[in-house]
Protein 1
Amino acid sequence: MAVAASTPIELIEAVYSNLPKNLAWGRSKLGRSLTLAEKVLINHLSNQDQDLERGQSYVDLLPDRVAMQDATAQMAWLQFMTAGLPQVAVPTTTHCDHLIQAREDGKTDLVVASENNEEVYDFLQSVCARYGAGFWKPGSGIIHQVVLEQYAFPGGMMIGTDSHTPNAGGLGMIAVGVGGADAVDVMTGFSWNVRWPKSIGIKLTGSLSGWTAPKDIILKVAEVLTVEGGTGAIVEYFGPGANSISCTGKATICNMGAEIGATTSLFGYDEAMGRYLKSTGRSDVAQAADKVAEHLRADDEVTENPHKYYDQVIEIDLSSLTPHINGPHTPDLAREVKALGSEAAAKGWPNSISAALIGSCTNSSYEDITRAASIAREAAQKGLAVKTKLLITPGSEQVRATIERDGLLADFEALGATVLANACGPCIGQWDRSAETEHEKGTPNVIVTSYNRNFPKRNDGDPETLAFVTSPETVMALALAGTVDFDPIEGTLTNDHGIEVSLSVPVGIELPPDGFDPGESTFVPPPVDASEITVAVSPTSDRLQLLEAFESWDGNDYTDLPILVKAQGKFTTDHISMAGPWLKYRGHLENISGNLYLGAVNAFSGYEVGHGKNQLTGDTQTFPEIARSYHQASQNWVVIGDQNMGEGSSREHAAMEPRFRGGLVAIARSFARIHETNLKKQGMLPLTFANPSDYDRIQEDDRIAVPGLSGLTPGVPLTVDVTSGSGEVWSFTANHTYSDEQIEWFKAGSALNVIKASL
């Protein structure tokens, strides 16, 4: 199996060749017309002897490829290495985008990153070469942008070890963010097991105009559905308004579907996708898609009568949609841009903006940059200057080279902007602001970004940074104003001559008229013969650590388990296993466990964030210290979460760390999809309160028991016994979502143990 810098047309044609017969079977089995998501999923079933009940059935699927970013790839590859296979079973790539810290500028930061991360980059390149995977060097760009440019194709299916993998839905692909263990399943030739999703249809009418951008669509959707509204569902966009949006605009919308917990999001194949494919050198893919176009969109009956076919339908009139901005601290807190100033004043948020950031995987397309650059160019002509720090992040080397050639970077630099490396940078917490004399960590400050997430500490590690997310053009306008109380549509700015001027409507160019400039070649294919390649991991390394298998379940019930932490409110993966400086330890399970629950807000009063009571000593310690203490004492434990536990990233470290430190059970009011799956994959038992109010009854000194584990059965709740510090015993009912296959993961100690035993 050859891995190249793009998806071979032969693979795509093979996928398309099966569409007519498989979709005919699907219509017969379900007795109705099919949504687009159903078409793609049905075409990738491992076998047809499977139930397809939305939100209930678990199915086995065969994705076309796997893509991993460097932070999560380390642990995924370390798991794959234990399987003992000679090479990966499906096309697989690793992309170096997360470990590059933003501090000075793109060129300087890339050099520093290459030096500081040499051991990790060498490991990733050698392991890719050894096992037949493609390797994208640091500086290539953000994984999702590179995938969109090179690998995504309409009707395809991929999984990626990053929650924003659904970006590829902008090209009509089912692309799902997963943990590394899921990726290893597929890399080893096993099917990918997932619950058959529910379906949310979003009908778009009208068309965008003026200052309104595709970003505003997903901000509105997040406001409507909230961070949990998409859980267990695929979000499918359709309608005349969908056809008016560019391919990269569609990708922006799908990318941020992760912020509503959706399994993935996608659009049907249309002319915009065809134009993008041709512009990125994939005319053969466009031609192949054109031949089966009817199969690459929902059936006509579905779009004509959506309420019959989708579990939920939301209608958005793009013509009446206005520019929006969300934040702080959660992606579903949205309002019109013009309303932010008054809200900030009412809530005591700073009015001034400390930094404005444009780019990331979400909004760094050629079209995005041209719209923001048109404002920058006009500003310079009108004598305006930015009032805050302005940072630009190209999404890929191809985008960077093209916008530099076309003079767009110069438009930003003329206003004093700093161009960062083609990497995640501040979006993933890799932003070093220590040299900023005007920024003092711990002081409330506001930033505006065109990124996707705005959790506390997400961008710069500062809990007092209030991050607001909006479109690139709105970020540019707010950078010129320097304050959040500016309406780019109606407001005016004072130029260097003291004259009040307004900003014109931004002008975007969908695709570069002169085509894309590929820039520097950064792809490394695997060698034909990898027999002489060794993958070495030093036993003294503090960055990489070989894995030992988790112990299998001993057949006994869980008894007398202390509660390590009961978290209150947001308990995202950033709270469980934060990024930023901790990214350097993503390949070292013991060292990365030093951040376990460090961001958790203790539900019991009297503790700083990340602190709690060590039940063995009575001392107040950080949660990582308590976990280490329990681990050394062979004391297993329980973690209690609130609503939507594990929201955010796909990082499986948020499941591997507690399992490594002796965690056995996670109980929450609800779980984010990826995190719940990651817990199952690593052999930890995720349960939800049947009565959510039982969460409130859990006290600090309680001990937890889970009897009846030998009878763990799909669809049958468990009883959890709670013994209080005074000896009082009470019980509550806990639900789970285990399938028969997943119960075997639990018994074996992890899904990986199941794979190893079968090879």
Protein 2
Amino acid sequence: MKFRIVTLISLLAFMGALLPNHAQGQKQQVIKFRTQVKPNSDERINLVMTPMPGGDGVKIEGAELVTLPGGEGQAWKVTNNWITITGPVTKFDCNLSAIDSITFENPESLQELIVETNKMGVLNLTGMKALTYLGASATDVREIDLTGCTSLKQIHCNGSKLIKINLTAATNVERVSLTLSSLRDIDLKGLNKLRELDLNNNALSRIDIKELPELQSVVLSSNPLEAVSFSFCPKLESISIKHNKKDSKLTSFAAVDLPKLREINLYGNKISTIKLEDLPELSEINLENNSLTAVDFSKCSQSLTEVGLGSNKFTGEFELKGLESLNKFTIENNKLTSFKVTGCPRLSTLGVQKNELTSLDLTSCEGDLDNVYASENKLSSIKLLGTHKNLYLNDNQLSSIDLSGCTSLESIELGNNKLTSLDLKGLNALYEVNVYKNSIQGENMKKLIASLAAKESFSTGSLYAVQTRDPEEHNLCTSDDVKAAKEKNWSILDRRDYSNYEGAFLRTIKCRTEGNGGSIKLNNQDAASIQVYTDTRVDVTITPDAGYGLKTLGFTPTGEGATTEDLFKTGTFWVSKDGEVAASFTNDICKVKLKREGHGILMLDGDRLNQDLERLPRGTKIQVIAKIDPKETDGERELQSLRANGKNIKGNKEFILNEDTEVVAKFDWLLDSKDPYEGETWESNFTKEIVRDDVNVVLFPNPARAEVFVEGASKEATIDLYTLDGVRVLSSVADLSGRASLNVDGLTEGIYVVLVGNVSKRLIVRH
């Protein structure tokens, strides 16, 4: 009998082992976390679960669901610092819950985990074999363990402090976004399903992108990359490695044998050598703001549609040819002296502005070439096609231009050249003309307006004929000229403020002196009056007698109740009406001596005053300009002291001239810093700066509604605000005290990341 009982017990135990897990009391999933929210306080935390506690065997300890004031929804009230959730939760979202520690036991049910905007430093996800989505952005997480996360498809950990992640454990991951973090290296081996990789704004110095058969896009922007390579990525379509150039260390780049690559963006690096071969699908490449002196596209692709080479180091001659699919080509802001384009039958937009071209011949281009940007060169001649629609030729040296064949032309900019005449006859499609700051006057201005094609009343043209109140403007467009243009439905505009221009009127300006002591001239003319057109500048020349100085100087427009314009400081004015210039002199004068110690700017406020320092009237209120000169200093100096005859005037920078006065300005190193070129290297200073920022940077208020203030940054540190997707939406610069502000009133509510120098801080925006 005893033997039978033992046998029976053994049999039952064996059968129990064969039963389903739930029949044996399977170990339950447990999520346990600690929040910094005080128990039983008015502050609430955010917990979203599927299923919610109370159903399907899910229960919660340490928190209870309560109704918000006014009945506007529900939230979780903390009853214990440690909160435990037990049961088969498949989705867990604890965003914005001030969690500083979280653990998972038997996490086999969890499929979606969102722990964004919390304070935990470690995230151990070991054994989460069902997990498909991880959101850990805007956290203090430094390390993530993905061991056993074989179902994970997407990882989003942006704006964290991440330095370590075993990504290779997530063998089925498809999308990885680890931006605005602190990763120094990363292993991608074996990620055969990875399609999207975004490592923007980390600390990566080197990276090999290889043997990733499904990879389609890579973003490595804003990393201190010294080397990067790509190999065996047959589906790679897009590469982005943008930088700000100042801090870039990338000097060379190669892309070879990438059969699906369509787009390369290398903006803002220091690349001087580049290799592009076997890229049959390459369509767009941005190489702007680098250090290139030459580039070869011949082994690259005949599919190129857009090429950007602006702000490099190209000099001398450049020939663009043989790119049959090319639609847009820009090479602005270099030092080219010659440019040729041949072939390129689909070229529509050409940008060669800000070079040193003296001539430009576009007649060899086989395409329509709709848009030509060639402003800010030294062009004295240009040959054009009849297909151009928009020509931008401002700021050159053109004295003439032949537009007779440009019948497709819709707009042209010829401002700031040397034109004395312009013929636009036959250009019936033309609707906008810029000719400001030339020398078109009298009959030639009349001929220009006469050559304009008449417009219908519903489709007026715009002629920017002048830029008033500019000393370099020599065009003259009279009221009669404006009238003639209006009759053809053309508006005459002033480029100074883009307003309608009524035309120039001839005005009479008289001059006189009150009493003795000196004389004055207007525009250097020795006459009692002069005639000038409106918006013309009049310069008043002051000639005091020996022992005298100018006491008052003003212009009074004609008309009852007119207000006198004070010209004492400037000695110039712009004419709008008839009027009179009057001056008076005094022999009660004083001298001002300016003395500067160190690098900086020291002068009186008023151009005329600085020309007459030895005979300024006693009792004059003097305003002093004293500031650092960015052309002479490195930004590490400041105004230390400013004194007038020994009296401190640094605060308001002004004094009353009651006696001969010496103004002394002292410029020196910032009081809270030392010579950056002595003692420590730049690298060590930079490292210390990061550590200091990490401790001291403060954002307030946070959450913010309209404006957020930054304190504790390094002086003149760059401050950028990003979305969690890594898109920069705002930017600012800290002042010398490390303070700045950002206006977030126009942003949508949500979580953002503020990057202060190299330190990331979370920001919540609520309206």
Protein 3
Amino acid sequence: MNTKNSPFANNSFQSIWSKHFIPNSNIQAFKFIKGIAFYKHNWLPNYFNVGKNLTKGNNYSLNNTSDFKNKTLIIYDVLPHLMDEITVPKNLGVLKSLQYSGFLINLDQFKNIDDYLLKTFSKNTRMKLRKFSNRLERCFNLSYKMFLGEIDKTEYNQLFDDFIKLLKKRYSDKQITYNNMLPNEWNFYKEVAYPLILEKKASLFVIYDNNKPIAITYNYHTEDTVIDAITVFDIDYSKFNLGYVNNLKLLDWCFENNIKTLDFSKGYFDYKKRMCTKEYDFEYHIIYDKTSLISSFNAHLHYKFFEFKAYLRNKGINSRFHKLTYVFKNGKNSKSKKKIQISKLEELPSLDELMLIEIQNDFNYNFIKKDINDFLYLVIEPQNKIEIYKFKNQNNVYILSCNSTFQQIKIEST
């Protein structure tokens, strides 16, 4: 990643990040290191890269100057695979702590999306992926939009409201804490994304069902790379494997727009491993003055701390911690207590007992939206072809009907 093209070296990114996280600190640069801006710890002689771990990758070069005297510099999310070989000046030490794996797709290896699918997945998997996409597009009135270079501010604000709602829904279902949803981080993302989109340093890729966003991906952009920063899909559409469909639609956009790399960034997920062509490392670098006892001590202390965090993460302690913090904040039984029973019917009950209902824009029926979508996946028909009934004398039983296929949904409180 050329530091001049990096969205994380962008003035908008750095000034807004500083406003949210270090409002009383000054951004500094040093002659001996290029590509990274820093801020100083309040009382220790330690300097941290601007953006810290909210960047999706940094690299730098070193010069033979001595303004590192008595200093310790900590750089998060260094990408060694994008760095040129560096010569470390005399009396300067560099400690490197491996933290995360990253995953990317090198588009230069393929002619187009079809060539990528052919060379990446088995015939059986390709058939499944096409099935998911075809069924999704048959059942719903889908549209796809990439917001890059321009976006109406009102529409932008609405999209970010939808974005956080989908994230809350997703992680409430998973019962874990997601750091990007914490108020300080989310407020930063909501403010920084707008100017970066206008500057073509970021984008929002959105899949709509009619006018409702059902998948949103926030990306950073360099000249020839798209970096997936935050992505979410509506779990009501999970039967259609919407997550994979979203990734493939984004990948198709990349092919159409001459992007060379789609970077899924740090953090392990099965889909990243299956879709990527390259796995790479994220490192934390600690640069220090070897002639200074304090600088050396600080550097090695930070190194041991980062190594310990990586050890805990590799042992799965990090995941357990996020589950515990979720329970602590939301309670042990924060999931819906409704129990839903699904049963197949051979015929439609008497219409005298039923009342036809319209749920498309009625939020009171959101609790059965996923079950209705699962039924759509089964019958493979547009959603406007389904008839939904409710028993007149029972508030907790619903009937789905389409092409002589009938299903009963019974809601029970637990």
